[in-house]
Write a structure and sequence with these properties.
This protein is an alpha/beta fold. It has helices spanning 24-29, 42-54, 65-74, 95-105, 121-130, 142-153; strands spanning 35-38, 59-62, 83-87, 111-116, 134-137. α3 (65-74) packs parallel to α4 (95-105).
Length: 155
């Protein structure tokens, strides 16, 4: 029997490069992600990356819940409060567990919007009552998502 290959490591988070600025404070802010999303569905993740990139957002993306939490707890956000689009169903660790850990370890650091296929009233209320900014039900329209992101980020 041939040896089994271990799974390939996940790609590191991918930020968008920011345009240079003449103002020193703007330079610091331009290196920090405005939007972070944790999404295990490759097609949706690529669609979000395309949309965010086309609109000039600085962003990071993760595909695994446990890896995302580790990185989110360690990120130097330089006083900013990025928008975090957080899938509820993730490999490694679910979105609600990530949200709870962030609330304990880094309260008021991220503005969280849950994304999920679970669109029942109970599920939406669960996310909103936990403290999320909003709750987007999949399938997500890219145009609608980008309009909401624009409002949440303040552009």
């Amino acid at each position: 029997m041939p040896p089994v290959e271990p799974p390939a490591p996940e790609a590191p988070p991918q930020p968008i490069e920011a345009a240079p600025s003449a103002e020193p404070d703007a330079e610091v802010a331009a290196t920090v992600a405005e939007v972070i999303f944790v999404e295990d569905d490759a097609a949706l993740a690529e669609l979000l990356e395309y949309g965010l990139r086309s609109r000039g957002y600085r962003f990071l993306s993760y595909r695994n819940g446990r890896e995302a939490l580790r990185e989110l707890l360690a990120l130097d956000l330089q006083g900013t409060r990025p928008l975090l689009l957080l899938d509820v169903d993730l490999p490694g660790l679910d979105g609600y567990s990530i949200f709870d850990a962030l609330q304990r370890e880094r309260p008021a650091t991220y503005r969280v919007v849950f994304t999920t296929v679970h669109g029942t009233e109970e599920e939406q209320l669960r996310g909103l009552e936990a403290g999320a900014l909003d709750y987007m039900v999949k399938p997500i329209s890219l145009r609608v998502a980008l309009e909401k992101i624009k409002r949440w980020v303040g552009r």
